[in-house]
Structures are given as structure tokens and as C-alpha cells.
Amino acid sequence: MATKPERPAPHGLGDSLVERLHAVQQEHGYLPREELQRLARAMARPLSEVMGVASFYHLFRLVPPGLHRCVVCRGTACFVRGAERLEATLRQRGVAFETASCVGACGQAPVVVLDGAVGSGDPGELPWQ
Amino acid sequence: MAVTWRCCDATACRAAGAAALRQRLEAEVGAERVKPVGCLRLCGQGPLAAADHDDGRSELFGGVAGERRLDWAHPFFALQRPVVLERCGLVDPSSIDDALAQGAYATLAACRLRPAAELVEEVVRSGLRGRGGAGYPTGRKWQLVAAQSNASKVVVCNADEGDPGAFMDRSVMEGDPHRLLEGMAIAAQAVGAAEAYIYVRAEYPLAIERLRTAIAAATDRGVLAGLPIQLRIGAGAYVCGEETALLHSIEGGRGTPRPRPPYPAASGLWGLPTLINNVETFAAIPAILREGGDWYAAMGTAGSKGTKVFALSGAITHTGLIEVEMGTSLRTIVEAMGGGGLGVVKAVQTGGPSGGCIPVELLDTPVDYASLQQLGSIMGSGGMVVIDGSMAMPELARYFMRFCVAESCGKCLPCRAGTVQLEQLLDRFVEKRASPADLAQLEQLCGMVKATSLCGLGQSAPNPVLSTLRFFRAEYEAALAPGVVP
């Protein structure tokens, strides 16, 4: 039976499941099942708990991502300045995309993040036609 | 005549081509006369660069080729009152030497010679209220934590700025990270805490990078009075901005809230007494301790002291970051500073998904905690989105409700199921097939979700609906199915 270990003090990064998951995702690009099992054993926690945390947060991916990433910002400023039209355009052009609640670059609304670079979501400036 | 350039190197200007602008300037005057700085405020005209001449003149330009000459005398800049942002845009955020030369950590050093109780008292006198949204008096929170007898206490900074349309905290962290660290170190000394955490959302990679650099440099120089500050990165959950959810997330678990009391001041991170404030609150601390609580309290209104940073965006001419005295009217902010709407201004949305819409007729409302609350909105963290006439209010309400549906953590039923029901009802109004009974049910359900949800997310989720119902009820009535008379 796996039991929860006593929490050592002071609290280092290694004690935080969220931080360990970040490390796994940084290495693999997503959270492979075997790695989650390994993490559960290493931290002496049930796999259900590890899965529970991994699936709770929007940014953790349980399946491998595509080669390129396109994230559309759904912030209020982007919404007011036509993010829905941007999403429709991307769908029409067959581009798979994720969404973020707000990337905080409201001055450039509507915003799209391509492979980590924040840019303008003006349909005319998108790389796919 | 020699000139030194300050180039904005914050997220929004980077998106607009700050790197190309900096390269061009470096080729022109040499790298040593070009300095990267934090937000220069007028994000919508980015990338921005300020030219400081040897004779003291300063000019501001926008665009990769510097094609737009901007005017420092414009009300957008002239009406600002920088306190939290006093060094943002002047200091190189990656250089601790530059920060030290501009006075960083001097207040902390002075505070170390003062009794802790005196520091708390100064914050109480300043009248500072929490800038994260709820507006709890900061000094009282500090008193509560300071009064706890535990040997170990923790200071936590809430940098999970999740409200869509808000980028004040991002700008502080990207533009002047040492100010935040100094504020936290002063707080730790005042309440007797020996460790500190900053919880930043993962959507802010540049802020995370700048904080990492700043913490390493400050620890290396020994200017943090021995306080270890750890960074914890979120993973995309809006609810983690709620303090108990945030603490669960730092502990490494699911970010779900829990009922209060006990409040974190008594039992927070790992059960220890925890002082939790947001970025802007901590960033106001060094100035308050340097100039005195009375100096800060002299600004603002009776119930809302000091200054507040707002992120101005949406259908407005000048998009960007402003810091103004509390009590400044919305009209001054939108019409004078923001240069008016792109179309016909219909309303100003404050407080994000927890706030409401203030109609254009009420633009003379002073911005303070009480006035906004009276209008069914909230100060919130400081996002201010201008809505133009083309936006239908039921659609805007549905936008925020969808946000809450996606971000509800699922722990309590009123929020998990209630927001879904509300979204479905709002669909009917957007698609103009609602009945009078739907309108009655919408209002009733809003009241239920507000009254019975566990945490702030659910309790405030109906606010955008209630506020648009209050001021734009005709739009809901006009959306009733044809042939139905309310």
C-alpha cells in the first residue's frame, strides 16, 4: 500500500507534484503514461492521485502534441476585437489550434501564439492561406 | 548631441516587433546606448522606444521603423501617477545593478533597522487594500499574520493573474521584478515569515524568466535579508487565483478551493500561517515604507487610498497600461487618456468574469471600490475593456459564462452545474429564441449560483449577467422569440 510520506521541511521543488509534472512535460512534450506511473512510485502516491492532478490543469497534455503549436487567445480584448472570426478562419483553413484564456498581450488583440511567439491574429498575416 | 534609447521589451511590444526595432537602433547608435526596459505603457502603438537626449529632452516613438512620433504630453501619459510603476520603463529588468542604482532594496535595508510592528502600522496607516480584486485591507491582513504565534510562517505572492483583459501584474513582473521581491521581503520581515513563494501562471513565460533572473541575482548579492523566495509555476487553471486553491496548487495538488475559515492567515500553506497578497499589492509596499503611510493615504478617496494600475484594452484608441489615483473618473480614463472609443462606446467592462459592465451614461463614476460595487461591478484586479456599440450584451454575458464553465473546478455543484445551465439559457437569448420564463429563470439561477457557490469564482460568475440585465435589460427583452410579449 502506498502511503503519503511525511512532508519534509523545508519544502523543495521535488515535493511538488505539479512541478514534477512540469519537468516531465518539458522533457517529453507531454505526459506519457509510463512516466506518470514512474512518478507515482517515486513519490509514493497512488496513480489515481497523479492522474487527478495531471488531468486537472489545462496545460498538461496527456497525448503527444503536433509538430507546431497554434494557440488562440480568448481574452476579453481579443473577443471584442474579433477572436471568434479568427477561430473561424483557422478552422476554415484546416489549422488545429488550442485556446488560452488570456495571454495578457491585450494591446495586440486579437492575439495568436505560434510555437511560443506571440503575434497578431490578423487573418491576413497568418502563415496559412 | 548624444542620445540613449530605452526599448520596451515586454510581451506586447515583443509581439509587435520589438526585436527588429532594437536591432535597428543598435546598428544606428551602438548597443551600449540601447537599453531594454519594461512596459512603456502605450502597448497598442508598439513596439515602443524612448529617446533620451543628453540635454534632458525625451521623445517617444512607436513602430519598427520608429514611424509614429508619440507625445509624452498626451493625457495618456500626463495624467498617470506612477507609484507601483515608478521604475517600470526606466530600469533594465534583467540587471540588478541598474535596479540598485535606481534605489531598489534601499527601503528594505532601512526597514531592517525598524521594529516589525512599526512596519505593519505603516501599512495600516496607508489604507492600502488588496489589489487582486477583493480589496481586503492589507494592513489588517498583515496584523492577523503577525499576531500568529507559530514559529514558521510563509509569505505567498499571488501572481496568477487570470482575468482575461488584465496585464498589470505581468507588466510589474516583466518591468521591475526587484520591486516585487523587495515588497515581499519587507512583508516577511513585518509578519515574521522565513520563507516565501511566488505562484506565477505558466502563460507568462517572460515574467517567469525575469523573476528567475531577479531572484538569483538578489540572492547572490544578499540583498533579500536571507529570505528564500521560490517560484512555483501554474498549469493553466483560472481557479488557482482563489487563495485556497492557489495554496493547494503550490502544495502540488489539484487547485480546488476549500471553505474558509480557517483563513490562510491562521492556517495556509502546509497548515502554517500564511500572508498572501497579489503582485501589485506587494509592489506598492516599497514606496509606502519609503515615503510613509500618510503619504500614500493622501492619494485617492476616503475608502480607496493610493493609486491603481489598470490595463486598458478593447475597442479604444489607446490600448495600454495606466496607473492613476483612485477616484479618477471612468470618463477621464476612457475619453481623455484612452482617446475615446474606436466606435461608439457602449460600456466599460471592469473586473473580468467576476465584474460587470458600466454603461456609457455612468462614465462619470469615480473608480474606487465602493462606487464600482454600487453599480454591480467590481474593481477586480484592474482589467478595463471598452465595449463598442456592435457588441450585443447577451453575447458578452455568454462569453464570460463560457469562460466560467471552462474554468469551474467542479468541486461544488452550484458552480459546476449552475454555470452550464446559465450558459444554455444565454444561448437562447443570443439566438433570439428565449421565452419570458427563461428570463425569470435566468435571474433566479443567477441568485442561486451567487448565494451558494463555494468560492469566489462561482459566487461572482453571475455578475456579468446581472450587470448587463440591470443596464441593458432591453437587449434581453428584444431577444425574446418573435410573437412573445414579456
Task: Summarize the helices and strands and which ones pair or pack.
The complex is a heterodimer of chains A (129) and B (486).
Chain A: H1 17-28, H2 33-42, H3 47-56, E1 70-73, H4 76-80, H5 83-92, E2 98-100, E3 111-114, E4 117-120
Parallel strand pairs in A: 1-2
Antiparallel strand pairs in A: 1-3, 3-4
Chain B: E1 3-8, H1 11-15, H2 18-29, E2 34-37, E3 48-53, E4 58-62, E5 68-70, H3 75-78, H4 96-101, H5 106-111, H6 116-126, H7 138-147, E6 154-159, H8 168-175, H9 177-191, E7 195-200, H10 205-221, E8 229-233, H11 243-250, E9 274-278, H12 279-291, H13 293-297, E10 307-314, E11 320-325, H14 330-337, E12 345-350, E13 356-359, H15 369-374, E14 383-388, H16 393-407, H17 413-430, H18 436-452, H19 456-460, H20 463-471, H21 473-478
Parallel strand pairs in B: 1-2, 6-7, 6-9, 7-8, 10-14
Antiparallel strand pairs in B: 1-3, 3-4, 4-5, 10-11, 12-13, 12-14
Helix pairs in contact in B: 6-7, 6-9, 8-9, 8-10, 9-12, 16-17, 17-18
